Amino acid sequence: MQKSKGMKMAALLCGAGVAMVAIVLVVGHFIKRQDSYRSILIYELEGSADIEREGSGNIRAAEDLYLESGDRLTVADNSSVRLKLDDDKYVMAEENSVLSVEAVGNEADSRTKIQLEQGAVTNEIQNPLSTDSEYEVNSPNSVMAVRGTIFRVETEVDADEEVSTKVSVFSGKVSMGALLEDGTIGDEILIGAGEEAACIGDTISGSVMTDPAAIDYQSFPLQTLNLLLELAERDAPLEGISAEELGEFVAEAEGIDETDETDESDEAEYVDEQEEADESDEAESVEETDESEDDRTNGSSSSQSNTGNTSSTTRTGGNSGTIPGSSSGNKPATTPTSKPTNPGTNPVTNPTNNPGSKPQNPVNKPEKKPQKQQKEYTVKFMYEGEVFATQTVKSGKCAKKPVLKPANSGKWDFDFSKKIKKNTTVKWK
Questions:
Q1: What backbone torsions phi and psi does residue 350 show, to the nearest 5 degrees?
Q2: d(Cα 301, Cα 39) in Å, to the nearest integer?
Q3: What H or E segment, with its residue span, contains residue 100?
Q4: pLDDT in the model for residue 109
Q5: Coil vs helix vs strand at 280
């Protein structure tokens, strides 16, 4: 009897244990599903990109591939990657961009952070974030925080290792603050729709925040302009610019690219034509010299008169006289190189006047193709309200930093890797 009670008790405890395990699994599964709603999907890939994942090494990016939180993405030249975060956040990483994406939390308390090391990303957050959710884009020198907006962040590091981060806001507002050496955020500025601002400098020596100014759409690469045009055409809430205006900027950017390619093609074609013309001239010169010598030999042997010690040479056809440049009784020192304007009246080139010679056809040299003129813009460097220096820069090219500095302290408030597409004024700060 005692033994039977003990067996029943053991069975009850075992059953309770199994039930507890089941409950834990169900709860764990529910929690996992609740937190795993965060997703990072590559839904469009142009060109190529690589993924660096901790513990897995490098992975070749592909469409319909899910990234893990913390993956590092490197976009190749002439490439772009579009990411879909959850169901309402979209990011386009432009060519030569390096970034990592962290997405954790749940729908009520999500934290999204894009660490942009270099390059540019355009963000579209379609639905406002919940009160406890965060969305940040961090660069090496600044932090951008938003709740629901469309904006672009571009980070560049010049030859002097100076970091420059520019934020352009197309919808909503973005808070931008300089990142300090201790990891905290300094004074912040608020950038509204249709405005852009920059943070220039590093966290050690200190950075400078520029005041918000109107967006310079001409400074954007074609990738960005095409994306903005796409957003405008599907009625995304872009402020301060229309689809028609964006279409004009796209056409202008495409025209610059085509002009550069055409100029290179025309130059290469002209070089090839010039080489062919030089070879043709050389061959013509050799042939003309050989035939002239034959003509002079035949002419001198056909008719000679002895008048004292003087001899003269006559050409066949009755035109008497010495060949220009020759001395009496000798071959000419030089061969005429000028071409007759009317080959039909010249005894050397007219087969009726000189049956023994071959007809000469003047070679028409190819005319040099007119070069397309690229637009040129003036870049003014201003110091204390006066012009310090000027540069003339072709459209689509970059200005060069002046060798001389107007002062021992300060710097030019300008990104010298930026392509010039209009008259530009650069100030010393």
A1: -90, 115
A2: 99
A3: strand 98-105
A4: 86
A5: helix
Question: Pick from 315, 291, 295: which is nearest to 304 by CA?
Answer: 315
What is the torsional sign of CA 41, 47, 53, 58? positive
How far apart are the two ends of the chain, measured CA to CA in Å? Answer: 96
Nearest to 188 by CA among 179, 196, 414, 120: 179
Mean pLDDT value of segment 5-28: 48
Q: Return the number of other C-beta atoms located less than 10 Å from residue 347's C-beta.
A: 16
> Is residue 365 pLDDT above 80, yes or no?
no
The DSSP 8-state label assigned to residue 106 in this structure reads -
Contact by Cβ (8 Å): 94, 120: yes
Query: For residue 267, what are its two tokens?
Result: 């130059």
The answer, yes or no, to whether residue 202 has pLDDT greater than 70, is yes
CA dist 113 and 103 (Å) reads: 7
> pLDDT digit string (tens) for 17-57?
544 544 443 344 333 334 446 899 999 999 999 999 988 88
Contact 150, 246 (CB under 8 A): no
Distance, in Å, from the CA atom of 167 to the CA atom of 48, rounded to the nearest integer, reads 26
Q: Are 28 and 69 in contact (CB under 8 A)?
A: no
* pLDDT grade for 344, boundaries at 50, 70 and 90: very low
The H or E element that residue 253 is part of is helix 243-302
Three-class DSSP category at 82: strand
Q: Which of 174-188, 190-204, 345-359, 370-384 is the least confident region? A: 345-359
pTM over 0.70: no
* H or E element, residue 229: helix 222-233
Question: Could you give the CA distance from residue 290 to residue 299 in angstroms, rounded to a whole number?
Answer: 14
Q: How far is CA 415 from CA 73, 191, 324, 357, 398, in A?
A: 25, 19, 66, 69, 9
